Amino acid sequence: MNYLIPANTKKSKLILGFFTWIDLIIFGSGCTITIILLIIFQGMDFTTAIIVLLPALISGFLVIPVPNYHNMLQLITNIIVFMLSRKRYYWKGWCIENGKE
After folding, report:
1. Tens digit of each residue's pLDDT (9 = 90 or more) over 6-27
2. Residue 99 near residue 91, CB atoms below 8 Å
3. Integer Cα distance of 32 and 24 in angstroms
4. pTM for the complete prediction?
5. How far is CA 72 from the centre of its chain?
6. Of 38, 39, 56, 72, which has the fewest beta carbons less than 10 angstroms from its beta carbon?
C-alpha cells in the first residue's frame, strides 16, 4: 500500500504548466504599459529605452518559474512574510510540563 505522488501534480492546474491567471494578468499589464510607453516615446536614447522597457522586464522577472517555488513573486512574498513575522516561538507542548522544569 505505498502511494507515489508525482512531483508535477499541480502543473495540470496551471496555464501552459507554469502560470496562474494572476501571473498572466501581471505580465500582460506590464507588457501593455510598455507598449503604450513605446508608442508615446518614439525616437529615444538608450536610458529612456531602458526606463520604457522596465514594466515588461519587472513583470517578466516576477512571473519566471524558480525551483521549489511557483515563481519569483511567491518567493519574494514568502521572504517578506518571514521577515515581518514573529521570530520568538513559545513552547506549548504536551510533554515536560509545558516547558517548566
Report:
1. 555 666 676 776 778 888 899 9
2. yes
3. 12
4. 0.65
5. 4
6. 39
